[in-house]
Design brief:
Elements: H1 40-47, E1 75-77, E2 107-109, E3 115-117, E4 121-123, E5 125-126, H2 130-134, H3 136-146, E6 150-152, E7 164-165, E8 171-173, H4 175-187, E9 194-198, H5 200-205, H6 207-215, E10 219-223, E11 234-237, H7 240-248, E12 252-254, H8 260-268, E13 274-277, H9 285-298, E14 302-307, H10 312-325, E15 329-333, H11 344-349, H12 354-370, E16 378-381, H13 387-396, E17 401-406, H14 408-426, H15 431-434, H16 440-443, H17 447-454, H18 464-486, E18 500-502, H19 505-511, H20 521-528
Helix pairs in contact: 3-4, 3-18, 9-10, 10-12, 13-18, 14-18
Length: about 525
Amino acid sequence: MNLRKPNANDATRSANRSRDVSPASGLCSRCVDGCRGNCEVFQSTYRGRELIYPGPYGEVSAGSDKDYPVDYSHLNIQGYASGARGLPAGVAATSDTALFPDVDTTTAYGWNQKVKMSVPVFTGALGSTEIARKNWEHFAIGAALAGITIVCGENVCGIDPGLELDQHHKVVKAPDMDRRIEAYRRYHSGNGEMLIQMNVEDARLGVAEYIINRHHIDTIELKWGQGAKCIGGEIKVASLERALELQKRGYIVTPDPSDPVNQAAFKAGALHEFERHSRLGFVDEADFLETVEQLRKLGYRRVTLKTGAYSLNELAKAMKWGSEARIDLLTIDGAGGGTGMSPWRMMEEWGVPSLYLHSAAYEFAEILSQRGLRVPDLAFAGGFSSEDGIYKALALGSPYVKAVCMGRALMIPGMVGKNIGTWLKDGSLPKAISAYGNTPEEIFADYEKVRDLVGNDEIKNIPLGAIGLYSYVDKLKVGLQQLMAGSRCFSVPAISRRELMSLTHDCQEVTGIPFLMDCYREEALDILNH
């Protein structure tokens, strides 16, 4: 089992020269004076801090490839030959009524005022990164058509070139945020919602006040962190003027663009870009409860919370305080996830991995419930990409988990669909795609479904990335229906922890899910002995 892969990775566009590598350091077992590269230490010699991040920055979606001792693949899903749970009231389970295409994949979250989604998935936070900005219409329209929630991440207003602030340094105009909200709302079909995150910088700029006063947004999400990093959000900017502008707005910008030494390095061409960072947040129970109440007084119908792969005491705070504040959704993001903009070594080596963190979340939810406290609706995040992962997360956290948050997996279809449009225009379709045809109608299996949703006149306005995301969500739905039918769970609330088995004793110890040879053993012996 290879747990560490330091010093060389495709994400950092680096590689070891030698076939034999020290497992502890990642250095070649024989480092030769005169080597022409190209490991991370080699590149860091002349590019320094640039090697902290995956690249090319803003154009890639990178995720950790660390092989954890136990992960979701160590769980399998039970199948049954009889029975059915979750069928509509009054419907008897027969071969004619328990059909997999009729499995109900809808879910809902919220303390009092529920949000319904057609499939129990929603996007990770698509915030101020360039990859989110330039692909937003593809992501947002696809999510709206698919009937799932999209999360607009932190710092969108703060980095907007068109941002206007009043004399109190509060937002009065944010064209990019306006664009994002309008794109989703134009095609919103009733399921899902657009919720917007707020971090320390957003709070200082008055983002919460702006979006509810201008757009009457229903839900806002407080941001404690994410599974990819233990530091605030960051982007890179390739302009000295832009770096100075963001610094003037109050952001941390490194290297300091106001320093004459760094300005000289930039003008000489040695320094190519600057980094904009968010400040670290500091959570406190009284402040958290007060903030949630203030947001409700502003008019927000729902307040949600996103937390990251922090230690178990921080998870306990999020769950206990979330219960006290009656938050509408708590998203728990484990290490190994992320949308690809985080420091690479941090993605690889920081935080509690998803399965461990999610298992603890279930344990803590049970403790709160046994104390008579209501547990907020939960969502699990951290490296999910397929219907089996969705099923396992719902089952592991049942009955508290209502959905799975996906980062990179829901971004990829938007980017692929967009690129198909580009390739169609310039006649350079890859063979893997042209094998299906040379028009969107031929290539996209769900094109006609989308046309039926929006109409013949409107289909020309739907970006192909949106159709790609819709198609991917449809695949997840059908795959989930099949798994649910096979385990005789015909609605999401019917899924329980008994639908899982641990393939190893280590997995059993982490999750509390019985080893597969112990699952249903008592029932099996009872059948044999009677």
